[in-house]
Amino acid sequence: MSSTKWGIAAVLAAATSATLFYFGTGLRPMSWCTWLAPLPVLVLAPRVSARTAFTAACAAWLGGETVMWGYFLDTLRIPAAIAVAVIVGSALVFGRPRCPGADAPPASPDGRRCRPGGVGCARIRHVGRDAERCLVEPGLHPS
Question: Cα(40)–Cα(10) distance, rounded to whole angstroms?
């Protein structure tokens, strides 16, 4: 595929993930959206450069977390700069190249070393902990 087609694929993956994150996070999330949200970016990641995958993942998280702007600014009444720092900081963590403690990935056939296998690891772990808590503590609704 040409770089233009991969660029379009990255934009579509980011937009799809952002939409799923938008409906899967917030104060009234649809949990199935949260589980599916990282998949478009994860499918894209091995096929593009690390920078493109990182950018797509960060854009997906930023787009998805726009649902929290009103809550941060109107309900919590925190300064806009802090709200930006929280959302942008979490997007950078979401898009980081790999999970902490993971060994360096092997080189791909085209020579790229960084496989963004950590895209979404933090969110997936968080959702997994919530699901595990619900199994252990009956009657507890996942957050």
Answer: 9
